[in-house]
Amino acid sequence: MGDIAKGVLGGGWALVVGWVLPAALNLAVFFFAVVPSLRCTAAIERVWPSSANQTALLLLCSAVAFGIVLSALQTPLYRILEGYLLWPRGAYDRGCRRQRARKQRIADLIACPEGRTPVQRALLNEQLARYPADDDQLAPTRLGNAIRRFEEYGHNRFRLDTQVLWNELSAAAPVQAHRQVETARTSVDFFVALLYGHGTVAALALLALPSAGAERPLLIVTAIALCALIPLWYRSAVYATDEWAAAVRAMVNLGRKPLADALGLVLPQRLAEERTMWQLVTRMSRRPYRDAADTAFAPYRAAPPDVETGADL
To answer: pLDDT of 277-294, one tens digit each?
Structure first.
């Protein structure tokens, strides 16, 4: 029983809270606000459960199924909101310019602190921290920048590209640090799934209007309410990345040495040399092997352990 609980609280918990739960909430809205207007159709009437228990079971099974599907599609779902997927080139460039101007505006406000309380300055610094340090890494959306800031953290500070070495870093970092990253991401997943679900249910409510009768006002109110909530969930997802960013930062800071040990490397004392080492490791992972790598890695490779020859036996 204890092993089952550990499994649920592990990766399964992230799936349930991040994807299944928001799917259940959206399905509940769909079942009670949209489906009544569709019950008059023969197809819906034929498959609709005849009792409350069967309806609850259908809702549960549908939530689990949709949650698993959303989790499997999370990469493209995130990329759309970040501005990397299905964005025309012109919209992408305009978004980047707008985000660059917003970042500069916040930086200018911080540089002129007159008339602002310490709390207001802290909030401005919090907003600025949701952007990557390098302007060349800016994304066209606020969520894209909020995520990009910790994707480029390891490379910006140590030249450790976490996008390339994420699996190695996850395997070598302390278990608690890895668990914190998964837990922190769950909150962002929740709002992202809620956002997409609201948009889908609102669209279905509008599509059901032509065939609706007395339920038409309910469909209109439902669609308007869900559309009004979408910006709130988006903003909440952006704010929730703060904890995710802190967890990734801790994972990079605490996992660098275990990762170097696992790769058979010695972490240099000088930061400049460490940056060079991680840059070499990233190149080795991304590019085909070249003989020059043998000489380049020589200063950083750990000496092999002494092997007893057995001569004293």
So the answer is: 999 999 999 999 999 999
Instruction: Specify the 3-state DSSP secondary structure of 130.
Output: coil
Return d(Cα 231, Cα 229) in angstroms, integer. 6
Instruction: Evaluate if pTM is beyond 0.85.
Output: yes
Say if CB 26 and CB 201 are below 8 A apart: yes
Sequence-distant contacts of 44-47: CB under 8 A, at least 24 apart: none
- The set of residues, in sequence order, having a beta carbon less than 8 Å from that of 285 and lying 6+ positions away, is 164, 165, 168
Q: What is the mean pLDDT of residues 35-47?
A: 66
**Helices in the chain by DSSP H: which ranges?**
2-7, 13-15, 21-29, 35-38, 42-47, 52-72, 74-82, 89-111, 118-128, 142-151, 153-158, 162-172, 175-207, 216-262, 271-286, 292-297
Q: Show Cβ contacts of residue 70 under 8 Å, excluding neighbours closer than 6 positions.
A: 19, 23, 77, 193, 196
Residue whose C-alpha is closest to residue 185's, from 258, 251, 95: 251
In this structure, the chain runs to a length of 313
Q: Does residue 152 contact residue 132 with C-beta atoms inside 8 Å?
A: yes
Tens of pLDDT, residue by residue over 74-98, are 999 999 999 999 999 999 999 999 9
